[in-house]
Structures are given as structure tokens and as C-alpha cells.
Amino acid sequence: MTTTTQPESVPRGADDDLAPHAASPGFGRRILSFFTVDRIVLLGAFVVSRIAYGLAGVTFDASGIDYSSQLLDQTLLKDRLLESVWYLHAQPPAYNLFVGAVLKFSPFSRELSFHLAFLALGLVMILVVHDLGRRLRLGRWTAVVVAIVIACAPTIVLFENWLSYEYPVAVMLLVLVDLAARYGETRGTGVLVAAVSVAALATLTRSMLHPAWLLVVFLCLVLYRRPTRKGLALAVLPLLVVLLFVVKNEVLFGTPQLSSWFGYNVRNVVIGPLTDEQKGILAAEGFTPATPADCTVKHPDVPAVADEFKRYQPDYGGDPIANFNNECVIVKFNAMQQDAFTVAKARPKWVARNVGGAVEIWATPSSLNPFVFQNRQKLGVPEEAYRRILLLDTAWDPVIPIPNAWPVKISAPDARHHVSITMLLATALVSVGAIAVLVRWRRRSGARLAVLIGGGTVLFAAFAGTFFEYSENNRIRFVTEPLTLLLAVAIVNFGIAWVRKRRAAGAVEPAVDDSGPAVPSLF
Q: Which of 155, 162, 78 shows the shortest CA–CA distance to 119?
């Protein structure tokens, strides 16, 4: 007998805005409808938590403007913003454009300006985590609790109070996956364009989210739910913006990458962790570091690429701060890349061991990153309780020695290496979940599309963050941490519901079941 199943939908009890409406309400009614009980609770929790963290002494750290190698000189960002960003090769352009726009146009101090911007991102995070949780089949109040726990956690607040691109990218990925879930339910043109635009912005902000990742996200969206021709044409536009910067870098600097740091990063993984004994073996075998090619600055009238050091020098003195966007840095990094490839080809087992060490650093709680050390010290017991109880943070002696990770080690209260069991298990779970959705491609829903793109992004970031970085891997992992935790909770929730359904059914098998699944399936 052939049976039919009803299309999957959001579970009963979902917010009204997840269901179709017969008529579009007026603007005033839309504003009022936004403030559901759920959202009022979320907004209250956000405000109360941020006040509490402020009273505990947490302050916004904008000092990265002075020393961050990811940022151009701040005087150039204020006085020659568009020119400097156009000639930027060390990083994708969006983060420098954002920082420069704030420095150039904000009427407030830089600390207050960035703090307000990051608080706004935090507000977006808590609302999006809740909305995405509902679309991932979490119950009404379960989604509220999960959103509060994730978005108000000490780790989140530490990164919310540090000027770096990790926090904005973490929010972007949550928004992307939420939009993907919406698109899987509605196939709306506006939602598709918004999702691709957010993904493109993430690529233009963080080099780890390579244009190849962006292309895969785009293909997942348009193949999972075929858009209209108009929708497809509009969705391609953000890809063309990214392509513009790829072509620009190829024409101006001879590299299609959005960041010229690849050689530097891969050398840190392949050669950086080697012991003196290993380096001696390489020297005995005839290895000598490649000599950088001769370099003449091709754009001497553009300070962003011509200056060897940043023009602004902070009050605390010290040596001049290197300009990592200097044109001649490219040939130095190309030489590093050549060295890395030579050593990797000669000693692949050494490289595998180094990658294993990178995984060990990657698994460290991100709140132990030295850049958030000062604020973490002010949180004390609450931060440690969160790490110990929810992240299952455990001190350990790494199987593979990682002496290069000493900044992370000394950031821990006990000056030992740590590992988060929760993040290890959650990353594995959501990665397997994405693969399971891909295998069962024909069974489609918004929730499955969210698991596919979200879990796939987590897997991609874990791969890129361990194969092409060595020392700050836990900082890099943070960009997917809130997404990983939310997806893991959703998958576990589905597993529990599935087990309960099986137990309730027992050994009795109905003759005919035309009602569809009692528990909406993620896989």
C-alpha cells in the first residue's frame, strides 16, 4: 500500500512569525508583533547580563587598533580609507573598511563606538540563536533557555568586548544558517539574496572562509531549493563582488587570494613547531631557507603598501609596528610558502604531528586566549564554572608536545594546557549531522538545510583552523563556537525525541499510518 506523508513544518507552539499569514499587517502591528513574550525575555536577559558583566569590571578593549597586524595604520584608515582598503592585500577588505568607517565618521570615542557596535551584534546573536533554535525543532522555552545560555555566556561576552573580527564573523555565520533555514522553508528570493550576501560578507571579512566555501554555500542553497531565474540572477551579485576583489588582487599583487598570508601561515604549521634537532636534520640533508625575491614597491605613492612601518605609534612606546600590508611582504611570504612545501614533501610525518598539535590547541577553550586575559580575570568564578560545567574543560598533558602554545597555556589559571570535551564532541556531532543530511539529500526541509550548511561550515572551519594555523587555533575556532553548540543541542534534542517515540510505539506497528512522522525528522 502506498502511503503519503504530510510536508514537514515548524512544530506546534512556534511563534506566529514562523507561520504564513493571509495578509500583511501594518507597520505598527509588525512592531508590536515582534515583541512576543519569548523575545521580551531574551531582551531582558541580554540587558541584565551585560549590566552584570559591566559591574564585574568587563570593559571594551579597542587597543587592537594600535597593534593588530590585521589592521592598516589607523591614520590611513581615517584619512585615506577607500584608497587604503582598495590596496589591501594582507586581509579581506570588510573588517578594515568597518574599522575605518567608525574611526572616520563616529561622533563618539573609538572605545564607545566599537562597544556599541559589538553590543548590537550581541543583541542580534541572542535573537538569531532563538529563531534558529525554533527552526531546528527546539521547543518554545527550550529555545529561549538555549539562546540565553549561549549568547550570555562568559566566553561570548569576552569576545564581544575585544575588537577583532572573530565576534562579527560568529554572528554572521549564525545569521547565514538562520536564513538558510528560512529559505529551505519558503524559497523566497529576498531570503536567498540575503543569505548569499551574508556569506559573501563573511568571506570578505575572514580569510579562513575562503571563496571556495562561499561557492559551496551558494550551490547548497540554489540546488536544495531551486530559485526563480530572477532570484538566481540577484543571488549571483554578491559572488561578483567577491570576484571583483579576487581579480583586483591578482592584477595589483599577482595573487588571487583575499589574503597574502598563506605562506606565513603554512610555514607556522610546517616549520614553526620543529625542534632544534629536527631543524638540524633538515640542515644536514641540505635544506636552506629560500631567499625572497628582489622587491621594488610598485605603488610608492600609496602609503598602505609603500610604508614599511605603521605611521601611528601608540603612547606606550616600543619598537615601530610593522606594516604587514607592505608590498614586499608578499615576496617574503612566498619564500616561506616555498620552504613549507619543501619540508612538507621531505618530512610528511613531521607535518602530520604538527597538525596533531594544532588540533590540541584548537580544542582549548577559546576564553583562554591571551587577548581576552584581562577581562577574563575580572570574571573569575563565573567564567571558570562555565568552562568546567558546560564546556567540560579539563586540564591535561597533551599527547603531542606543543611548546609554541605557551601563550594559551599561561593564560589558564593553573598555567596548564586545557581541552574542552564539549567542543570536541559537539564539533564531531554536527559534522556527522551535515554528512547525514547530504547523504539523504532528497529529504528536504529548512531544518535539514540549516544542519547541512551550518555543520558543513563547522567542519570546514575545523579543517582550515588546524591545517593552516598553529598557536591561536582556539581563537579561530571561536567563530563557529555558538553555531556548533546550537546545532549540537538541536541534534541531541531530535535524538531524544526519536528515542521516546520508538519507546512509546513499542512493538505495536500500525497497519496504516497516513499522519506523517510524529516527530519532525532532521535526517
A: 162
The C-alpha atoms of residue 218 and residue 196 are separated, in whole angstroms, by: 6
Question: What cell numbers appear for 362 in the block?
Answer: 584548537
DSSP 18: G
Task: Name the phi and psi angles at 315, rounded to 5.
Answer: -65, -25
End-to-end CA distance of the chain: 24
DSSP H helical segments within 136-203, as ranges? 140-151, 154-160, 166-186, 189-203
Following DSSP, what letter does each residue of 369-402 receive, concatenated? -GGGHHHHHHH-HHHHHHHHHTS-EEEE--SS--
Strand, helix or coil for residue 417: strand
**Contact criterion met (CB below 8 Å) for 92 and 211:** no
At 313-337, the pLDDT tens digits run 877 667 889 999 999 999 999 999 9
Confirm if 128 and 175 have CB atoms less than 8 A apart. yes
Evaluated on CA atoms 187, 189, 191, 192, the torsion sign reads positive
Contact 490, 138 (CB under 8 A): yes
In whole angstroms, give the CA distance from residue 350 to residue 278.
Answer: 9
Q: What are the residue ranges of helices labelled H in 72-165? A: 74-79, 81-86, 94-105, 110-135, 140-151, 154-160
Considering only CA atoms, give the Rg of the chain. 24
Cα–Cα distance, 150 to 130 (Å, whole number): 10
pTM score, whole prediction: 0.91
Per the prediction, the chain carries an average pLDDT of 90
Please state, in angstroms and rounded to a whole number, the distance separating the CA atoms of residues 349 and 336: 19
Distance CA 492, CA 523 (A): 12
Cα–Cα–Cα angle for 383, 387, 393, rounded to 5 degrees? 150
Check whether 389 has a pLDDT greater than 80. Answer: yes
Q: Which of 382, 486, 501, 502 is nearest to 173 (CA)?
A: 486
Instruction: Calculate the alpha carbon distances from 147 to 37, 140, 198, 494 in Å.
Output: 14, 11, 21, 17
Query: 514 falls in which pLDDT band (50, 70, 90)?
Result: very low
Instruction: Residue 11: name the closest of 190, 166, 156, 140 by CA.
Output: 140
C-alpha cell at 483: 553555531
